[in-house]
Amino acid sequence: MKFVRNVATSAAALLMLAASTALAAPPPPDLGGASWRASQDVAPTHGFPGAPGDVVTTTERTCDPFGNATLSMTATGSAEGPYPGTFQEQISVALSPVVQPPTDRDVLSASGTFSIDSPLGQVEGTLFFDRAQTPSIGDPSRSGATGWCLNDPEFPGSATVTPQTELGGGMTGYEATITTPDGCVFVDHGGDADTTDDTVSSGGFDLRDAPFPQGRTVFQGFQSDGDPLEASAGCEPSSSFEGFYAPVNNLPVLNEVNAGRAIPVKFSLGGDQGLDIFADGYPRSEAVDCSEIAHAQVDGVEETTTAGSSSLVYSEATGRYHYVWSTAQDWAGSCRQLVVKLRDGSVHRANFKLK
């Protein structure tokens, strides 16, 4: 921005400068933890009945005994998580020929688009599926996303009177743009951080298409890869966070520690920013379903200290902050996520398995 020397336009220049400063507001949260489920024509005895406003439509369905199976659905309903509001999703899935008689099939491909209309931001994104990056279930030739379909009665050899399709698994990636109320645009990526293994880190999906009482259901969940959001010009966060440093490993690694011990959490902010760096109520930990991160690479934390009260110090020698996070003994056998939110609004997470 050029400096404005004309006195008559100085007030306008100040307003422009204020607007530019506003665009540097704290970044929004990523989509980690976001989810939705919309159902229609589902009886209480057969699943989750739809909530008011749920609309689920099947736009395409093929299912025959010759190996051709597809399912495309659209859904609208309520989104939960960091962006509560109204979601819309379109998803298409293709199943392989039968791999486990009589009906079980592998998911060959899946893709979709979604949007969330939330007071906290407008989200638009794309879902990706890479069959090679889904963990096999039993048979290494199969992907971790599977489904089945029952044939329409008119197909030869079918004794089924109620055609239906059900499938689910893990999406291997997503990309979303998040536009905050102040006009900033951020890009969030989720997916496999290591394409050489079988981990899936972007969430899962579950679809069902059948007449009443099974009805139609679309479920979608998200898990972030933990990387910072990409900000548009003028929207970059004010702090320069780097970390976490050893002994804590960053997502998607699952740190394994003994419950009741204290965990040294180390990071840097590009220099000494004082000790009033955390957002109110942070850091804090949240319970995480271990089954959701079962495929993460477990790496034990080598360095631990005797449990005591949590503390924060800054080391001039290393240029790093050291935060001592005390774990509880009754957390043994569970998984938790440490959430470090700074005053600039940036959020940084690490996963732990306590034994």
Explain how this protein is built:
This protein is mainly beta. The chain folds into two domains: 187 residues; 118 residues, Immunoglobulin-like, CATH 2.60.40. It contains one helix and 22 strands. Strands 1-3-4-5-7-8-11-12 form an eight-stranded antiparallel barrel. Strand 5 and strand 6 form a beta hairpin. It is elongated, with a radius of gyration of 24 Å. 34% of the residues are buried. The N terminus is likely disordered.
Summary of the model, kept short:
The chain has 355 residues and is mainly beta.
Please specify the SSE layout and strand pairing:
Layout: H1 10-23, E1 35-40, E2 55-63, E3 69-80, E4 85-100, E5 104-118, E6 121-128, E7 146-150, E8 164-170, E9 173-179, E10 185-191, E11 204-209, E12 216-221, E13 230-231, E14 242-245, E15 254-257, E16 262-268, E17 284-288, E18 298-300, E19 311-315, E20 320-326, E21 335-341, E22 347-354
Parallel strand pairs: 15-18, 15-22
Antiparallel strand pairs: 1-3, 1-12, 2-3, 3-4, 4-5, 5-6, 5-7, 6-9, 7-8, 8-11, 9-10, 10-13, 11-12, 14-16, 16-20, 17-21, 19-20, 21-22
